Amino acid sequence: TRQLRQDLSSIILMSEEDLQNLVDIPCQELAQELVESHRKVQALQGGIQQVLDRREEERQAKQLLQLYLEALKAENTKLPEAAEPASVCVTDEVDMSASCT
Questions:
Q1: What's the pLDDT tens digit per position in 54-67?
Q2: Which residues pair with 91 in a beta bridge?
Q3: 75-97 burial, b for 16+ CB within 10 Å, e for fewer?
Q4: Contact 51/20 with Cβ under 8 angstroms?
């Protein structure tokens, strides 16, 4: 909080742990420490919490995508024969004989 009291823009450089600590401090106590109104500190804590929530959602989405990619890779390595194209029947128009591969 000392760092914030001197320069509120330093909040940008704070770690997630430090940001969470700011959210966890009782609003009235933080308002007194920062010499700001209760309403401003409440808005600040709300904004910080939104940022932390968004980061957590992004982290979870990334993990989910990584799991999905791993599952796709595992599926592709298990079923290489199924990925081969089915046999195609070709008809030669000149002699009308059919050959299937």
A1: 999 999 999 999 99
A2: 98
A3: eeeeeeeeeeeeeeeeeeeeeee
A4: no
